[in-house]
Amino acid sequence: MADEIDPRYDPAFQRGFTPPPAPPRIEVVGPPPPAVVQQQPVAAPEPRDSPVEPFSRRVNPYFAALWAIAAVFVIGGAGLYLVSLRGLYSASDGLGNSRVLAQFAYAFSPPLMTIGLAIVIGLIFVKAARLHNGRS
Prior knowledge:
By secondary structure, the chain is an all-alpha fold. It is built from two helices and no strands.
């Protein structure tokens, strides 16, 4: 049983297998004959019935909205930061309302600016990738 080859598996990976002898090499003398290529005639494109429309760039409304949101986030974050600085270093009305709003503005202005700048960088990246692919 040890000398038998199991038919379920490839014989090349079994013990006792001897590969068949290699076929003799055939050498080609000289270059191969040139191939005959028949060219098909190219038909002229059919004329269009309607005139060709000029190229128009359509603005993607989602990208326009993202640019607007990015501008609002960056400018709004900077404005909130300035308001928070004014509120933190000014006199309070006694109830502490201005301090709470100033702390709120101070806490949320840097993330707003960061998200706005990240959106701008992402939109610039998408625009560059589209120009690289030949689309705009």
